[in-house]
Amino acid sequence: MSGSIAEKIRAFERGRRRAVVLLGVLAAACFVASFFLPWWNFQLFAPQYPKGLTLVIHLTGVEGDAAEIDTINHYIGMHSLADSALLERAASHWIVGATAGLVVAAVLLAGRKLNWLGLAIGMGLPLGFVADTTYWMYRSGHDLDKRAPIHLKPFMPAVIGDGKVGQFLTQAWPAWGFWLAILGVVLLGVATWQRNRVCRVCPRHATCGALCPHTVLGNPA
Amino acid sequence: MLAPSLLLLLASCQNGEAPPPAATSSGGGGDLAAVMAERGLTEDDVLAAAKTYAPSGKLDDYVIFASGGHGGNIIVIGVPSMRILKYISVFGPEPWQGYGYGGLSDDVLYTQGAQGGKEISWGDVHHPNLSETAGDYDGNFLFVNDKANARVAVVDLKDMMTKQIVANPLVMSDHGGAFVTPNTDYVVETSQYAAPLGNEYATIDKYQTDYRGAAVFWKFDKTKGRIDEAASWAVELPPYAQDLADAGKLGSDGFVYINSWDTEMSAGSEGKGKPFMESGASQNDMDYLHIIDWKKGEALVAAGKTKVIKGMRVIPLDVAAAEHVLTFVGEPKSPHGCDVTPDGSAVVVGGKLDTHTTLYDTAKMKDLIAKGQFTGKDPYGVDILDFQSAIRGQKEIGLGPLHTVYDDKGYAYTSVFLDSTVVKWNYKNLDEPTESLGVQYNIGHITAAEGDTVSPDGHYVVAMNKMSQDRFTNMGPLLPQNFQLIDTSGPTMKVIADMPIGLGEPHYAQMIKADKLHTITAYTPPGINPYTDQKSEFAVASGEERIVRNGKKVDVYMSVIRSHFTPDNIEVNQGDEVTIHLTSLEQALDQTHGFAVDMYNINVSMEPGKYEEITFKADRAGVFPFYCTEFCSALHLEMMGYLLVKPEGA
Known about the structure:
The complex is a heterodimer. Chain A is an alpha+beta fold. Chain A has one domain (about 5-200): Butyryl-CoA Dehydrogenase, subunit A, domain 3 (Up-down Bundle). Chain A has helices spanning about 5-35, 65-75, 85-110, 115-140, 175-200; strands spanning about 40-45, 50-60, 60-65, 160-165, 170-175. A five-stranded antiparallel β-sheet of chain A has the order 3-2-1-5-4. Chain A is elongated. The two termini of chain A are about 15 Å apart. The model of chain A has no long low-confidence stretch (mean pLDDT about 90). By secondary structure, chain B is mostly beta strands. Chain B has ten helices and 44 strands. In chain B, a hairpin with a 4-residue loop joins β33 and β34. In chain B, about 50% of the residues are buried.
C-alpha cells in the first residue's frame, strides 16, 4: 500500500467521522425546530360546519378551533382539550431540549457499545408523542363525564386516518413538526450506520467500551 | 341547466316554432318549457329570473341600506337577489336584536335618544348615508336622520348595530339629513318644519320673526366612530321649510346645497282662512336653493362668531348672510331632490311641481359668489344669485321629477312621481333624448349602485315605489311599498325584480359593493362591549362566574355558552338592585344566544363574544325563569335558569 493511498483512506475516515457528527447535530436541530411547528392535525366535518373544524396539536398545546371543539365535546362529557396532557405540555421544551442535547452528546461521546444510544433517544421523541397522543385520545373517548347530556359508549377516536363520532367525520394526520422529527430519526439512523463503520476500522476497536475515549473528532491513531 | 334550455328556447322562437319538449330536466320535477307554460312566463321573465335568482349559497354583489321610514329601522337588502338580509333597529325597540329591552342599548335608545327629557321609542328614518373617504363609500359607518324628532343615529357597519343617537337641541324636525361631506368630516342635518330654535315658544303670527330653520354640522370623530357633539355647530336659516340636501364633492367640496319649498312663509291656515300649507307654500314661482360654504362656516365658528343655543354654537342668520356662509339661488317652486353629480360640477334639483330638472353649475355659483354678483336680497338679507347665470341648463323630464342618481357612463336617473317613471338622461349632453321606464307605482326615491359617490358603478338602479297597488297578494288595507330592481346594463332599462317592503316605508337608500363591508362574525376576545369596542372590565372567563352582594345591590357575573348559563340560579330579595353582567364565551360563526327574563321585560341578544349588561330593580317577587331565546343548539330548551325574588318580609 503506498503512502498516498493510506493518506486517502485516513482522509476519507476523517470525513466520515465529521459527517457522523454533522448528521447528529442536524438531527438535534430537526428536533429543536419541530418544537415550533404543529405535530398533528385533526379535522372534523359536520353539516353545520361547512368549512370543518380544525385542531392543531403542538407539543406545547392545542390551537385552531380547540375552544369550539371543547364546547361541542362537553355534550358527550369529554374533558376539555385545554386540560389534557398538562404535564407533557409543561415539560415539552425540557424534553425536546434534553433529546437534542443527548443526541449530540451520544454522537460525540458514545463508544462502540453504545453506538445505538443516539438513535434510540431520537426515536423516543416521535414514538413517545404518538404513544402519548394515543393515550390521551383513549382517555378522552373513555373517561367520559357520566352526567353529560348525551351518553355515548366509550370509544377510541381515530388518531390517524378517518373516523366518525356522532355527526362528525374526523380526519387525522401528522403535521410538519412530526415529519421533521422523523427526518431527525432518519439522519440519526444514517449517523449510527456510518458510526458503526468508523468504529470497525478504529485502532482502539478492541478496547473501546461504553464511552469513546477520544471522541469521534479526535485522532484515532 | 338553465342556460342551455334558454338558448334552445330562444333559437326555437326565432324559427317561429313552438318550443320543443325541453331536452334537459333540472330535477325537482318539470322541465323549463313546461314550467314556463304552466306559470305563463315569457322569455323576458326567465331572463330576468336568471339575472336575479340566487341559488343556495350564492352571495349578492351589492347591499342596499334602505331607510324604514316611520318603522324607525334600516332594511338591508342584497342585490340582485332582492332578499332582505337584515333589519337594523335604530329609533325603536326591537326584541330580536335585544334592542331596548334592558341591555346596554337602552342607553342609546332611551337616554341619548331622549328629546327635551322625553323618552321617544320611534323615529321616522329618512335618509341613510354611508361614510365616505374621498367621496367614495368606505363601508365603515351609516348615518340616518329621524325626521319626526330631529335626531341623527350612527350605525357601525362592522356589527350593524346602532351605536349612537344625537338629539338635535335646536330644531323640532329635520329632513335634509343625514348627508356626509366627502371625507365624513361632518354629518349634515337640516331642519324641515320651522320653529323657534331651541324649543322656545312663539305664537304662529310670529312665524317670520321668531321661527327659524337650521343646518347642523355634526362633527364626526372617525377614530372613535362617534359624533362629537361639543365640536358640532349650526347655521341659522330663514323659516323656508328646508328640504333635501347634498354635499359638494371634488371641485364643489366645501359647499352644501339645500333646497326649500316655503319661501312664502305661509305657515299654514293659522285658523284664519289662510290657505293650508299645501297651497300657501306653492304660491311663488321660485323658492331658494341654499348654498352653504361650510369651510367658511367652520372658520367663523373657530373665530367665535356664534351665539350659543341650548349648548350648540350657531352662526346667526345675519352673520351667515353677511359673510356669504349662506347664499341663495332661485329654484322652480316647491322642488324636491338635491343631488350633486359624481364629478361635483353640478347640482340636480327635481322640479316636483315643475316638469324639469335644473342643473346648477357649482363652479359658476362659486364664481358669482366670489365676485359678489347678486340680483337681490331676501327679507333676511341673504344675497340671491341670478338664476340664469347659475344654471347649466334644464331638462324636460316629466310630471313630478324628484330624486336623481347616476351611473358610470354620464347618465342620470330621475324618479318621476306623478308619471310613475324612471327617466334616464345624459347630464353631460342635455340635447340627448331621454329614455323613460314605467314603474309600479308612484316612485319616490331612487338608488343606484354607488350612485351618489364620485365613482358610480352602473348596472343597477332600484326604483323605490311608494305604492304597490296590485303587485302583490293583498294583505289588508296597509299595503307594502314596492322596490323594483332595474337592469341598466343593456341598451334599454328593464325591471327585473319586484320586492315588497312590508316592514316600514323607505325613503332614501344607498347601494354599496358588498365587498366594501368589513363585517365581523364574533367579538374577539370574548367579553367585548360593543359600545366601547373594548373588553369589559366586568367580563368573565370560564370559572370566574360569581354573584356578589353588597347591601341591596347584587352583581351577577354570568357566562353564556352552549347550552348553559353560569350561574343558572339567581336568588335575590324583593327590592334589590340587580345587575347581570353577561359574557358570551362563544367564538364560533352563527352561535348566538339570547337572554330573556320572563315577566321582567328583559331580553338581550348575545352574539358570540359579546358583553351585555342588564340593570333592573327586582320589584316583583316570585319565581321567574330566564332562558335562551335564540335556538342555539340541540339542548337549547334546556338552556335556562331561575331568577328567584324572595318576597319582602318572607
